[in-house]
UniProtKB/TrEMBL annotation, chain A:
Residues 19-97 form the DM2 domain. It comes from the Eukaryota. Pfam families: SWIB. This is DM2 domain-containing protein.
TrEMBL record, chain B:
Residues 53-67 have a biased composition (Polar residues). Residues 1-67 are annotated as: Disordered. Residues 22-36 have a biased composition (Pro residues). PPR repeats lie at residues 163-197, 234-268, 269-303, 304-338, 339-373, 374-408, 409-443. InterPro entries: PPR_rpt (IPR002885), TPR-like_helical_dom_sf (IPR011990). It comes from Ilex paraguariensis. Belongs to the PPR family. P subfamily. The keyword Repeat applies. Residues 40-50 have a biased composition (Basic residues). Keywords: Repeat. This is Pentatricopeptide repeat-containing protein. Pfam families: PPR_1 (PF12854), PPR_2 (PF13041).
């Protein structure tokens, strides 16, 4: 049971997560925020999330909400406030599916 | 969600331990699985101890970072000059060589040995020195056995002809590089030189062949060994083969092999029965598990701790928690003390029956009896509590886990994150994500993809008015939403 499961996980994962860790050339808005010209979707998320934590941008009254500063606003559709729940999908907008 | 929470995978002693999955916490206080407990392992342990001892006994430990030979020589020379104490002893030289050989080429390693001999008049290579070279030669990517032969010849010409230990080292090294065919080839060569492997090497190789090659390869090997030497399958070999078919859930074949074993004049022991019982566990056939247990009693084979652990695990898994619970008392009567594995199996059974509070009570019971829970136990409970919508208790438990430095397992992490998100506690889910990544419980990719897909699902659910709306700080920890995850 276990070996098969592991095999399955190993064989499935590369495809499943390929678009998470694939390095992508960034659009100029994101490039400025990230300070680099290439990154993966996962790397971008980690960067944004640690930026939020480092700058205490979570709303003190409701931690589920982020009050964007100007820098963050520039990459999150110019919103003043975003919910943490929508953060991944907002970041995903910068990483459109590559037509094959 | 799968039927078997991952937290239990590591609690399921027999097989998982053999493969040393990363999820096994080091403190797991359990007896080794049946096949490992056979006397063929103790032999390897002294070897391992020896090498680790030599390294730890020699602070500061030196490790080579560059495969460059001349740099290694320079480093060695500086060591010999700087130490005012008596010349470096052979163990230290060997550990240096060991370190260097892990990154260098074979030729450079040999040159380094020669350099030792030249510069250190007291040093003369011993068997371990050659075995380090042999080990390296087996691990080098080379389609033929030429490097291995080179070292074996080198040993012979230096008055240290290969012995059974050398075969064992070579076979293990070759198998660890996935070169089972070459290992078989080498063993056969040695047989022709009238140096057959010992039964430990023989059984090790059979185990590797069972695991990674076809059955016909195994049968061939057994047949050839009968021809070339007087090695025949012993009880351990039979157990390995039964274990192999049990892992493939082929219990019919296992029963047949049991018959063969008895025909050949062996009496099945506790390990054999444990292995078969474990096979039935995989199929969740509670009745059959009990059947094996009864047969053991009939045949007068004394069950050990592992037997009871398998029994309780299997019965819990088959949904017969009450019976499993009874065996907790039976095993104490028989003089075996339930360990963390026993309790975790039982807790898992209770959680699956929707009784995580009973499992929590069992946690207290085990603590009171002086048996400390491990990270598996906590992961099982966390999973069970979240599944039964007892999120507050789950968060409490998570706090204990975090303070205790315990890792989260993939399954319980997922369940916990989903439960938090479902209740609108996104920030806490992010915190759990951070902890999972920081504690290296999961890879960033795995942890993030779970979080992302949960949030995606949450968005869909909200659109359909299914999930709890975002909560404000004021009513945090309030009502529980009743919603079934896909």
């Amino acid at each position: 049971m276990l070996p098969q499961r592991m095999k399955k996980a190993i064989t499935e994962n590369p495809k499943k997560h390929a678009n998470l860790i694939e390095l992508v050339n960034l659009p100029s808005t994101l490039r400025e925020f990230m300070g680099q010209s290439q990154t993966s979707r996962l790397g971008c998320f980690m960067r944004v999330w640690s930026y939020i934590k480092a700058n205490n941008l979570q709303d003190p009254n409701n931690k589920n909400v982020v009050n964007c500063d100007d820098k963050l606003k520039s990459i999150l559709l110019g919103k003043h406030q975003v919910e943490l729940a929508e953060l991944p999908s907002l970041i995903k907008l910068h990483f459109p599916k590559q037509p094959k | 969600m799968g039927k078997l929470p991952p937290s239990l995978r590591s609690a399921k002693f027999p097989i998982t331990l053999l493969k040393n999955p990363p999820s096994i916490p080091p403190q797991l206080p359990q007896s080794p699985p049946p096949t490992i407990q056979h006397p063929h392992i103790p032999k390897k342990i002294p070897k391992k101890l020896k090498s680790s001892n030599t390294q730890s006994r020699n602070p500061p430990s030196i490790t080579f970072n560059s495969p460059n030979l001349s740099e290694a020589k320079t480093l060695f020379n500086s060591l010999t000059k700087s130490s005012k104490s008596p010349p470096l002893d052979i163990k230290f030289c060997n550990s240096l060589l060991q370190s260097f050989s892990s990154i260098s080429t074979l030729q450079d390693s040999i040159s380094l040995v020669n350099h030792f001999v030249k510069t250190q008049p007291t040093f003369s290579p011993d068997r371990s020195t050659y075995h380090i070279l042999l080990n390296q030669s087996c691990k080098l990517p080379n389609p033929s056995l030429s490097y291995v032969h080179q070292i074996l010849n080198y040993m012979t010409t230096h008055n240290c002809p290969p012995n059974k230990d050398s075969i064992d080292i070579a076979v293990r090294a070759l198998c660890s590089s996935g070169r089972e065919e070459d290992a078989v080839e080498l063993v056969k060569e040695f047989c022709h030189k009238n140096l057959p492997p010992d039964s430990y090497t023989y059984n090790f190789l059979i185990k590797q062949l069972c695991k990674n090659r076809t059955m016909s390869t195994v049968d061939n090997f057994i047949k050839e060994m009968k021809e070339f030497s007087d090695l025949k399958p012993d009880l351990v070999t039979h157990t390995i083969m039964i274990d192999n078919v049990c892992n493939g859930k082929n219990l019919r074949e296992a029963t047949r092999l049991l018959g063969v074993l008895i025909e050949e004049g062996f009496k099945p022991d506790c390990y054999v029965y444990n292995t078969i019982m474990k096979g039935y566990c995989m199929l969740s056939q509670g009745g059959e598990i009990l059947g094996v247990y009864k047969k053991m009693q009939k045949e007068g084979v004394k069950p050990d701790l592992v037997t009871y652990n398998i029994l309780i695990f299997g019965l819990s898994k088959s949904g017969r928690v009450k019976e499993a619970r009874k065996f907790l008392d039976v095993m104490v009567e028989m003089g075996h003390f339930p360990d963390a594995v026993t309790y975790t199996s039982l807790m898992n059974g209770m959680c699956r029956q929707g009784d995580p509070l009973g499992a929590l009570a069992l946690l207290e019971e085990m603590d009171a009896k002086g048996c400390s829970p491990n990270s598996c136990t906590y992961n099982t409970l966390l999973h069970g509590l979240c599944k039964s919508r007892l999120l507050e208790k789950g968060i409490e438990l998570y706090g204990v886990m975090k303070d205790g430095g315990m890792k989260l397992e993939t399954g319980s992490y997922g369940t916990f994150v989903r439960a938090l998100c479902r209740n609108g506690r996104i920030a806490e889910a992010y915190e759990v994500f951070d902890h999972a990544v920081e504690s290296k419980s999961l890879t960033e990719v795995a942890a993030y993809s779970t979080l992302e897909s949960t949030l995606k699902w949450l968005k869909n659910a909200k659109e359909h008015g299914l999930a709890a709306q975002q909560k404000n700080e004021t009513d945090q920890g309030g009502a529980v939403s009743f919603l079934v995850l896909p």
